[in-house]
Design a protein that fits this description.
alpha/beta, Rossmann fold, Ribosomal Protein S8, Chain: A, domain 1, 3 domains, 6-stranded parallel beta sheet, 5-stranded parallel beta sheet, 16 helices, 14 strands
């Protein structure tokens, strides 16, 4: 059995090697010629999977090790009876922890504690719900907007988008969709931004095409937006240089790149492929997840606020400032090489693990601090 896979899917050889011969390559180089003789195709978000790619091939199963599926023509796969699996929720914790780190950096830079700050969360699915949990743990005032979930559940916790516009910070966690009443393609446009609270902050870790680059730049120039945090960009891997320069935090589409989430995604599509083929799944992710880079963090809480201690712990595990510095190096590359540099940042991303892998040792007993760290999913001693 021939298997073609994006080289950025961790342990794809080890997992899918139990099913056949695995060939890996950069996702942007996967084309019709490369997949013609493949039985299984495994991708991430940079590969468009549609009739143009698969027509005439012998591919009978496609897996994407991502939570989003906007790069997959599912209708075409269904019409051709090609099996399909994604990895919903696999990296949701990773993205939520990235947002937590971003919020703590912004609080320090703005000299304003997070406690009591209002945040509007647009999209409250796998990622948004985890962001909500962490924001509440940090004492933030949380507003939730998710029209599809509101219609499905009737839950009173969801508010109209107009309420979201009143928040100090707005963070986007919707899928990218192009049609229907809840279409999100370029949802964050000039009209959307104009309604935000003046001097507010916008975070986008969802999809680059959800937010118009031009609208964000104009809002930053005119002080409608105080800051933006951007991990996903229009025109990846060649984001707008001016927006990279203006962003308070700019990263290379790595919010969901904690190793736990990436390996979880590999396991999810591997198990789905095994089920589709009628094979027993023998590979397990626990066999490859070694000790985290920061297994223990000793926190000195003497004469320091809870938020300062939390910030130090979070940024030690999730080095978002280092991610930002690496992203800004793209601006120093020749224009024709920036896209390749962006992709290398993703391919060579340092090992980051989810918070639950790190034990925080508190040198002073602070019940409230201990409780917050636990709610952020650290182990605490």
């Amino acid at each position: 059995m021939q298997i073609i896979a994006d080289e950025n899917i961790p342990y794809v050889r080890e997992a899918f090697g139990t099913l056949g011969r695995v060939s890996v390559m950069p996702g942007r180089r996967i084309n019709a010629k490369k997949v013609r003789d493949a039985d299984i195709l495994l991708v991430r978000s940079v590969t468009k999977v549609d009739e143009a790619l698969l027509a005439g091939s012998r591919v009978r199963f496609v897996g994407t090790a991502t939570i989003g599926t906007d790069h997959i023509d599912e209708a075409y796969l269904d019409s051709e009876k090609i099996g399909f699996a994604a990895a919903p929720g696999s990296n949701a914790t990773s993205v939520a922890e990235y947002v937590t780190a971003a919020l703590l950096v912004l609080a320090r830079e703005c000299n304003r504690p997070l406690k009591g700050t209002s945040i509007g969360i647009v999209g409250v699915g796998n990622v948004g719900s985890r962001v909500e949990k962490r924001c509440r743990a940090l004492g933030m005032k949380v507003l939730l907007n998710d029209p599809p979930l509101k219609r499905e559940t009737g839950a009173k916790k969801f508010v109209p988008i107009e309420r979201i516009f009143t928040a100090d910070i707005v963070t986007i966690h919707t899928p990218l969709t192009y049609e229907g009443p809840d279409a999100t393609y370029q949802m964050v446009n000039e009209d959307f931004v104009a309604q935000l609270k003046a001097g507010s902050i916008l975070i986008n870790t969802a999809r680059g095409q959800i937010a118009e680059t031009r609208a964000l730049k104009r809002a930053l120039d005119g002080d409608q937006l105080r800051e933006v945090v951007i991990d996903v960009w229009e025109n990846e891997p060649n984001p707008d240089d001016g927006l990279v320069e203006r962003a308070a935090i700019a990263t290379a589409h790595i919010a969901g790149y904690a190793l736990d989430g990436k390996v979880r995604g590999t396991e999810m599509i591997y198990r789905a492929a095994c089920k589709f083929l009628g094979k027993r799944a023998v590979w397990k992710k626990e066999a490859v997840l070694a000790e985290p880079p920061v297994p223990v963090f000793e926190a000195n809480a003497t004469d320091r606020s809870d938020e300062d201690v939390i910030r130090e712990a979070v940024l030690t595990v999730c080095d978002i400032e280092g991610d930002d510095q690496r992203m800004r190096r793209t601006l120093r590359q020749p224009a024709e090489k920036r896209g390749a540099f962006f992709d290398r940042l993703r391919k060579n991303y340092p090992v980051r693990r989810e918070f639950h892998n790190t034990t925080i040792v508190l040198k002073r007993s602070r019940p409230a601090l201990r409780n917050t760290l636990k709610r952020l999913e650290f182990e605490v001693k």
